[in-house]
Amino acid sequence: MIKSWMAIAAIGVLVAGVGSALTGADIRWFKRLQRPRWLTFEWAIPIIWTVIFICGGWSAYLVWEADPGSQLTWVLMGFYLVLEIITISYTPVMCKLRSLTVGTIIGATGGLLSYLLGLSVWPVSIWAVVLLIPYMIWSPIGTYTTWAMVQLNPEDR
């Protein structure tokens, strides 16, 4: 039988893999954008997101293990999945549409959903909420960064 953590990890990797398809033109568009001078940590963003996704998967695992297969647990797993899809869609959707405003909206939506998910899993597992804190902290930073890039690249709103 497949362990719950294996299923959660496999779904996370599958969603991330599907969302990572970008063309060379998309990447070139994003790389040519001006960045705020204070964005000295761009090299760390992939590491930050890797930690956030691991924490999110672990959070989902704790929620699943608290009450495996219940209707509430399935609803919460759907919530985790929606949050991951929104998060993963940030780069490909923003780059395909060549719109930093769209990126800002997607980032803000992910941030809002992370807080709502945290409130939803609070009664199930406080540790699941603790594991969502990195997302809750980083999402506003990433969203603000994208918004700041809109100001520097008005032709790419």
Distinctive features:
0% strand, transmembrane, 157 residues
> In DSSP terms, counting alpha (H) and pi (I) runs of 4 or more, how many helices?
6
Poorly predicted spans: none
Describe the sheet with the most strands. Answer: none
Count the E strands: 0
Question: What is the string of SSEs from the N terminus onward?
Answer: HHHHHH
Structural class: mainly alpha
Envelope shape: elongated
Cα-atom Rg, whole angstroms? 16 Å
Strand content: under 5%
Helicity, as a percent range: over 70%
Structure description:
- By secondary structure, the chain is mainly α.
- The protein contains six helices and no strands.
- Helix 1 packs parallel to helix 4 (71-97).
- The longest helix has 27 residues, at 71-97.
- The protein is elongated and about 50 Å long.
What's the structural blueprint in terms of helices and strands?
Blueprint: H1 4-19, H2 24-32, H3 45-66, H4 71-97, H5 100-121, H6 126-152
In short:
It is a multi-pass membrane protein. By secondary structure, the chain is mainly alpha-helical.
